[in-house]
Amino acid sequence: MVSVQPEARPTLRVAFFGTPRFAVPSLEHLLRSHHTVAGVFTQPDRPRGRGQRQSDAPVKQVARENHIPVLQPDRLQDTVVLETLRDWHVDLGVVAAYGRILPSTLLELPRFGMINVHASLLPKYRGAAPIQRAVMAGETETGITIIRLVQALDAGPMLGSATKTIETDETAEQVEHDLSFLGAALLMRVIHDITAGTAQEVIQDPAQATYAPRLTKSEGLIDWTKSAQQIHNQIRGLYPWPHAFTYLEGVRHILLESRVESTARSDSPLVSAGQILRASGDDLTVKTGDAALAILTIQPEGRRPLRTREFLAGHPARPGQVFGSP
Question: pLDDT by residue (tens digit) across 32-57?
Answer without folding.
Answer: 999 999 999 999 988 765 566 778 99
